[in-house]
Amino acid sequence: MMINKFILKFLWLEKMIGVALDQNVNGKIIPVTEYFFWPRNDAWEDMRLELLTRSWVSKNESILILNQITEVINFWQEQSEVTRKEDFIFVREKFPFCVFLGQD
Q1: Which residues are paired to 28 by β-bridges?
Q2: Residue 97: CA atoms inside 13 Å, Cβ hemisphere, count?
Q3: Are strands 98-102 and 6-12 parallel, antiparallel or unpaired?
Q4: Does residue 91 or residue 43 have the better pLDDT?
Q5: Where does the pLDDT of residue 65 fall: very low under 50, low under 70, confident under 90, or very high at 90 and above?
Q6: CA–CA separation, 83 vs 95, rounded Å?
Q7: What is the pTM for the complete model shown?
Q8: Angle between helices 81-94 and 59-78 (to 10 degrees)
Q9: Which residues are the signal sequence here (predicted)?
């Protein structure tokens, strides 16, 4: 993932997961998207469509961003509601280039 350029932020909740994208511009963090939620909506598809409207995000960058979202959502889905709170600490280690907010 472009560690210095884009930052994926996730809201790690028991019943859903949210994802948003920020950009690092000269050390300033600027929001690129709102939060998209899974499984309430198709967060992956919502992000894909949003990235298409950002002409300055390359196709390769979009692919890397969407692949990372897929990995995190798949991991979230594999956890039960009971263990999601416990897994919150582990998920930060598993995906070190993402920011996770939520239950600690």
Answers
A1: 25
A2: 15
A3: parallel
A4: 43
A5: very high
A6: 17
A7: 0.88
A8: 140
A9: 1-22
pLDDT for 83: 74
Contact 10, 30 (CB under 8 A): no
Rounded Cα distance between 99 and 96, Å, is: 8
| pLDDT for 79 | 83
Distance CA 37, CA 42 (A): 7
Pairing of strands 6-12, 17-25: antiparallel
Q: In this model, does residue 4 exceed pLDDT 80?
A: no
SS3 string, the chain, reads CCCCCEEEEEEECCCCEEEEEEEEECCEEEECCCCEEECCCCHHHHHHHHHHCCCCCCHHHHHHHHHHHHHHHHHHHHCCHHHHHHHHHHHHHHCCCEEEEECC
Residue 102 tokens, joined: 């939520």
Rounded distance, CA 57 to CA 62, Å?
Answer: 7
